[in-house]
Amino acid sequence: MTWQTVHKTARPDWPAPNLDDYETADAGFSWQRARAALTGLPGGGLNIAFEAVDRHLDDGLADKVAIRWLGKDLTQRDIRYRELAALTSNFAHLLERLGVAPGERVFSLLGRVPELYVAALGTLKAGRVFSPLFSAFGPEPIKARMTIGDARVLVTTVSYYRRKVAPWRDRLPGLTHVLLTDANASDLPEGTLSFAEALADCRDSGGLVETQPEEMALLHFTSGTTGLPKGAIHVHEAVVVHRLTGHYALDLHPDDIYWCTADPGWVTGTSYGMIAPLVIGATMIVDEAELDPERWLGILQDQQVNVWYTAPTAIRMLMKLASAEERGIFADYDLSHLRFLASVGEPLNPEGVVWGQDVIGLPFHDNWWQTETGGIMIANYRSQPIKPGSMGRPLPGIEAAVVQVDPKTETVSPIESPNIPGQLALRPGWPSMFRGYLNEPERYRKCFVDGWYLSGDLAERDADGYFWFLGRADDMIKSAGHLIGPFEVESALMEHEAVAEAAAIGIPEPTAGEIVKALVALKPGFTPDEALRRSLLGHARKRLGPAVAPREIDFRANLPKTRSGKIMRRLLRARELGLPEGDISTLESDER
Ligand code: ATP
Ligand code: MG
Asked: From its record, what is one biological process in GO terms (predicted)?
């Protein structure tokens, strides 16, 4: 692989790693010690919501702002830890009164509104199971997930209910309660309740159920990038990882103003857009609106955000607007409060890391994890130098390896030599590990071979122990005996000044088996013509060599992505080849 020659090395103007407590933590690390940073409950109990909210009533943070909510029109609502504790207790009581049994599922179908956070934390506090859905899903994906999850309660709005749930509700008889956040008792659709009024009737304190660490807490559906989404089961013990990784991988401290741009409809928006910052006692920003660069810069400036966690798709969009030479709208904003930037969800091209330094004054820290892992596993974390284009190194307590799997003998051998491609695997046993795919035991079992969890991603590890993402196993391209990772090709194309986004896929070809084809979306101001196509092909050949460089390039207005911002290469490939599109329930942008 050519990665180590392609990536740029760390620059002297980048922040020096902060070694204060990492080395000691890593040396004496144990999950027991990590857990001791939490309060816990009598008899060895543990509850995510108690750790995130209620324990702060006794540690001096009760009157601190826990959630600063910004509505679409920028109305601001502050919820302090004390208020959040009361609201979530009320919701916990409400579930009890409605007769929802411990372990039963409460779903939400909401935008990023305060009620979503109250319902989520209230459900966890009550020892019931929470499952957040993207509000932009249509009726079918909602029905499919609520059926898999056997939903008992749904929290949503009048309009979502009427359009997306009411038409099929009779097919889910187990759904006994629907709570609407924007209705009052006088105009409720049949069979629904008003969230506000039901909550107002439950003004009791307490409500905490003393859950055990192994009790099911969250049901999270994967992004569906490679196929039908799976419902990953997470337990209360996961909070140990949320706290630890919030500290190490995101450099989060109680004094911080923190903003994670992810929606709780995918796992980042729950693990790091709700649980980690609250457990640490920080103030977190929730923005109801969708990505709008000017609004985002305004929020970063006005809210004096210190730590920002976002995704490559957003970073690439911002990259269209500014460069080191032409700072564009970035010149109008004061982002000096920012201290730490992080990215997850897709490979972050080295260009993006460097762009952060040049335009914002800080590099992005890429990190890797999955719905299944529940929390960050591998990161360019604050106590080590960043390698642009690398996902970083495993966090304390995480054993990761690049492995070879022999399907015949079902044995797994870690590859010890550096820079050899293989499957990215983890040694099970960390607390936020998923405990199953709900109702799909066989699919779950297949993830484990010979004492390893196989992530489905391919990677390499370099001599310094940094991991380099090559691609999802399903997206790898086999051309003339070479195994080509799409990320490598895409990152080389991203270096070209005209490219905003790129996706590389394999197209069958008789001699080579497959050839690489790239689909490219351009930055504003560039014309998709033959001259530019040739310039891109030439650039890619120079960077990658003829064996790896794309043979064909087509232009697209944009690339199909999941709601969590991941490019769906399998869909591009299916379309190229005229094959069925497969499950596209999580598809978001799709201008062809
Ligand atoms: P599905 O499993 O349904 O196909 P998904 O894998 O996209 O969906 P998620 O759990 O949301 O669902 O995403 C995890 C995946 O995202 C990882 O397995 C990896 O492929 C990709 N990913 C996450 N972070 C990174 C990163 N920093 N670099 C490269 N890839 C990443
Ligand atoms: Mg996956």
From this structure: acetyl-CoA biosynthetic process
